[in-house]
Amino acid sequence: MNNLVKLNKINSHLSEVVINRPEKLNAMTKPMWIELGKIFKKISKEKNLRCVIIRGEGGKSFSPGNDIGEFKKERSSSKLAKSYGKFLHGTLGSIFNCPVPTIAMIEGICVGGGLEIAACCDIRICGKSSRFGIPIKRLGLTMAAKELEVLLKATTYSTAMEILFEGRVFDSQEALEKRLVNRVVNDEDVKKEAYKSAELICEGAPKVARWHKEFARNILKKGKVTEKINNLGYKCYDTEDFKIGYQSFLNKTKPKFKNK
After folding, report:
1. What separation, in Å, do the N-terminal and C-terminal C-alpha atoms of the chain show?
2. Would you list the DSSP string of 66-132?
3. Which letter, b or e, does each residue of 189-206 get, where b requires 16 or more Cβ atoms within 10 Å of its Cβ?
């Protein structure tokens, strides 16, 4: 793999996943999709991790998606494409279903599969010069249903169809209007803003953040609040962190949560 996808441990609570192929603007290959999926499966098992930032190396591109040069060998028929898709879709699922809060730190290009990766994250922060889109109509390709599902969860049906039908690459302000990103900042401030968001997440009670993510995903999936999820919403009162939190509030001190 030659470290084309890296996992950096920033501290005991925060990790960073880096798509590390800057000479190709971080275009994804099959081995990279596989490695990215493995990393997120590993991350999902880390009980004390409070936040994950995913970014592209080099500052010019988050990722333009799949490396077109790989198509002839890996995706030149429906059979090959289906086999490839198992890895790609499995990885998107690993990111989307990761119990740890995730932030996409978007610098530059965020197109195609790169936008799909970002869309799987909980929070997306980009620079003003960032560009977005899914121009696969030019390749005569459909977006696989599993990938379209990701796009539909990030935005509306009508917006998803506009992105696919028109195939335009658009700017950060339009991405914000389309609800594809949470905020747009100056290019030089993207890293600072992403880490500021991560710091705020890490300061909170870790179990609470994971529960909020679980509740929201379950409600979106089921289309309603199930009795199981409703009951789970009261578990926080039995945690040590709740006692720490409300005592700190009364004492007007900053809480130091233990994830217990």
Report:
1. 37
2. B-GGGHHHHSSSHHHHHHHHHHHHHHHHHHHT-SS-EEEEE-SEEETHHHHHHHTSSEEEEETT-EE
3. ebbebbbebbeebbebbb
Confidence of residue 2 (pLDDT cuts 50, 70, 90): low
Give the strand pairing for 109-111 and 61-63: parallel
Distance between CA 247 and CA 138 in Å, rounded? 59
Beta carbons within 10 angstroms of residue 185's beta carbon: 18
- The letter for the amino acid at 52 is V
Contacts of residue 142, Cβ cutoff 8 Å, sequence gap at least 6: 136
0.70 surpassed by pTM: yes
The CA distance from 219 to 190, in Å, is 31
The closest of 31, 105, 101 to 63, measured between CA atoms, is: 105
Q: Which residue has the tokens 């991790």?
A: 49
Dihedrals phi, psi of 112, to nearest 5 degrees: 55, -125
